């Protein structure tokens, strides 16, 4: 399997590289571009990114495995990232997680067999005033209730 | 220069040094895992915590620079507790499998536990599981569960070998040391990561399960793999010889020499000792009888060789000698003296260049795979490959009656046809060497010589540094040091060489060879001395030599 | 300034992510003023205002700026820390999303003061929409001649870039942030050198929190005394308090430094739902050791909180009512540190995991008599022995809960052990 950057991705990366005095500094932004293009960062992309950034591949792998937002495998269409930190926990994050566990039959890090949902228990997303909350792909959804979770799962699962 | 106090001891330290460096110089032992003087300082493992007056927190000795008036306590209650706590943390997810771990006996976890751990573990939880017994290179096995993530090996691969194979992946206590997928740690210096691993995470395939380290003896020596002359320790297992499986040298380890190899050796050099007990090792005197080489004895062969020499001399037939840059300065000096005084040989070539250019780099691995070419040059040998060719041409044209060859496998450097006609051109071919090859196979006599771990002597490295090798094991079978063989010949013919030990040869050598003038074994010590063409020692070295001789005599 | 005395709140309420709206609030007038002053004068004004870092550490901002070497041969960088990830903290999100231009104006002033011509805004990767808003505001500013070459018509040049993180709390620690910005793992650096001397790309660098920089334009506009007078003796002005957990009106509240904690909970945040009693409150994000109900008359001022053994941190207040299981809360806090520990230094890497395992076991019916002491000792062993404050926080939090609520932990333990013994006579014998 090989990985190639699209023309659009290449253009974005070219611009990103102009922002820093050395290429390596663009590692996070470039990995974001790869993930946006491909949905996750396949192993085949690592040497390519390393080449662009002029660093040994091992340094890229260290980076992408350090940061939780970088994914190394395909996940579901809807990524349910439920906050489990203190403020959300105080307002029932555990119940929300349990509800998803039972409803979709997936636990932390798992994806439904139809590839519709992936559940990740995450730490504080900085939206404590709307606890309990989750991030659905890029968007924050706060003040979760059992009904709201049912609604999300129902709507997105179709 | 700042003056600091460590444990009540006042020290004046060079500015910019850190506490641990100051302590090392003063012989005060501060534990360390991540700190290694040959690598960058990262302050990660935290085992070197010390108390510094006027600083509220404990400080890591490895990273904290000395400042004038600093007062450091390494043994205060707080410092001891800090280190004990760090040790306990290091063992939280460590399997504590010392009974089956090859590092046992030279493990910093064991050592420090005995020194200042000695607590009852309160860790009752399940340990994290990680990769075990993963071969990560031709010579290296990784046990991630034993790894304490000190990053020494990573820094070695990034900073010294510059090959970047290893990384730490994931975070927290799930973080794991691994090579980049598909990559192996097979750089020319790879096994150094095993040396510097302070725990049993990285072990050497060649050494695993071979012996417990406490059965090993260590002898200081010099690597003979190339002309760099890396300082090494030869580890041998004489206490449990039945464990050796016919291999008397267990392993080589690099020995620090700031002027030569610092802390490192290359893999090629590390495994270069295998010829010592290889299948082709020569341990028996041999002579050719009816075209076949047969086992013989010194008692039988020596008079025959002497007779051959004598007859050649008396009949004014030419004797030719081909020395070897694998021989020590002592061997070469004795040979030169004997050859010129007694045999009337003046041309003394030593060099056989291999047909293909061997691997070399700009670090430790040199193209010249001989330990003593430089010394041969100092001692008046002709180190030009062409001189050897001329000698062979002479033999081939029938101009040589008796040829003595030391060590060389001539076919490695010359066309087979030329070698064949040269060796058949001489009436008698005496081969002196430690290992058989295509040349010894064509010799009339084979006189077995010791390898460098079986004898004493000195080598002169490419930069003119004269360094000492020591006997780690007994000579194999009939083998003798080359200078002894020459000495024995000299007793029966011409002027006898009055040497009893290698040091006697060296003393004679220093008196008669400008480059070595003023040197002695005690002055050479463990670090070596630099010889110079004009016969003068470098100023610093001369001083050190004088001092060392003084202390040695005192 | 609006009629109710708030400084940044009106900007947030009036969508000052758009230049048009910000202009109505005298937008970029402060920057014009500052660019006419000398660099030292700007630093002095900020110093006099008693503005202290509002990201967590509370270091005086003007003093920090003054650390930048004069006439540096290397480029100087300004880095804005918007890696807001301390549980209980969500204020910067509002500023960058809806008062974006005041941040950009603050960046111009700060960059000018320290001699930086490049600024990176490091924003946590999860803040996708806020990052988009910053990008849009930056574009507006470039188009209007506010950023880029000849800032606001002066000879000063400044480029500002958004740099998205990718999920790592540790990158809020300034040296980890710098490593992350250089494309590396977010492993904190050993200090010294401090960033002001050797920071981003080994050049002099100032790292400031979003909120801190957002207060700079009003300080320049209204003078340092105006700001200093609002706060306490050593800590000037207003700041945002985020309140979450068991309160009726969770959210952000911009109030003077020194507002009493009780007032925050019972007046501004509307008290506890169902009129329940307060059990415990964390005053400055999870890393601040918790307080008991009898301690909440403390003013929310860095020095006053430090005096009672906790800290103002990011001023993220987390309120827990009487029904809260504190063992669970400690677990949720420690699990966070365990999840976020970078793995670099031993006590944090191993200690946070160990604490987490003990707490998980306690909460799943396997409590042991000595667990409380073990938690406390492990916390104590981590504290003070790590490279960065993450380990310290984990240690302090473990100790803090037990110090303040030992009775509660003991009660949980006895109940749990009793339940276990009743179910398992064998285990009873063994213990």
Question: How would you explain this protein's 3D organization?
Answer:
The complex is a heterotrimer of chains A (158), B (554) and C (431). Chain A has helices spanning 7-17, 27-38, 45-53, 57-66, 86-90, 93-104, 146-157; strands at 78-83, 117-122, 134-136, 139-141. Chain A has 158 residues and is an alpha+beta fold. Chain A has two domains: 7-66, Arc Repressor Mutant, subunit A, CATH 1.10.10; 78-156, 3-Layer(aba) Sandwich (Glutaredoxin). With 554 residues, chain B is α+β, with helices and mostly antiparallel strands. In chain B, the strands form six sheets. In chain B, strands 15-14-19-18-17-16 form a six-stranded mixed sheet, sandwiched between helices. In chain B, β8 (166-169) and β9 form a beta hairpin. In chain B, α2 packs across α3 (108-117) and α8 runs parallel beside α12. Chain B is elongated and about 90 Å long. The two termini of chain B are 32 Å apart. With 431 residues, chain C is α/β, with parallel strands linked by helices. Chain C has 19 helices and eight strands. In chain C, the strands form two sheets. Chain C has a four-stranded parallel sheet, with helices on both faces. A four-stranded mixed sheet of chain C has the order 6-5-8-7, with helices on one face. In chain C, α4 (39-48) crosses α7, α15 (326-340) runs antiparallel to α16 (346-366) and α16 (346-366) runs parallel beside α18. The longest helix of chain C has 35 residues, at 389-423. Chain C is globular, with a radius of gyration of 23 Å. Chain A binds chain B through residues 43, 56-59, 61-62, 65-66, and chain B through 164-171, 179-181, 183.
Brief summary of the model shown:
The complex is a heterotrimer of chains A (158), B (554) and C (431). With 158 residues, chain A is an alpha+beta fold.
